[in-house]
TrEMBL record:
Keywords: Cytoplasm, Ribosome biogenesis. It is found in: Cytoplasm. GO terms for biological process: maturation of SSU-rRNA. One of its GO terms (cellular component) is cytosol. Its main location: cytoplasm. GO terms for molecular function: ribosomal small subunit binding. Pfam families: RBFA (PF02033). Belongs to the RbfA family. One of several proteins that assist in the late maturation steps of the functional core of the 30S ribosomal subunit. Associates with free 30S ribosomal subunits (but not with 30S subunits that are part of 70S ribosomes or polysomes). Required for efficient processing of 16S rRNA. May interact with the 5'-terminal helix region of 16S rRNA. This is Ribosome-binding factor A. InterPro entries: KH_dom-like_a/b (IPR015946), RbfA (IPR000238), RbfA_dom_sf (IPR023799). Signal peptide: none annotated. It comes from the Bacteria.
Amino acid sequence: MGQLRVEKVQEFIKQEISQIILSELKDPRIGFVTVTRVEASGDLRSAKVYLSLMGNEDQKLVTWQGLQSSLGFLRTEIGKRIRMRFTPELSLHLDESLDHSARIQELLLKIKQEEGG
């Protein structure tokens, strides 16, 4: 399978999961979630879905639990929408790069203020 096909499938899954979380998941535990990227295996049998969660630690934990319990629903919905022989097995992963970036910005601003800049 070509790299282009894998990239197209990754982008499709990212867009569809974003839409499903936004408008179709009815779990009240799920707060603000951003799908940051999807990494599909070369054979498209599995896909890692990276998510960024907003809120304090308790809110993130509750959102994560809600998302984990909706994994079967997400895969079923992707299966209905994608034209492939197999629906990729989905796994959810936290993408903490946004949190990391925000923390670095915070530290840089603090240093700048301490230097009187």
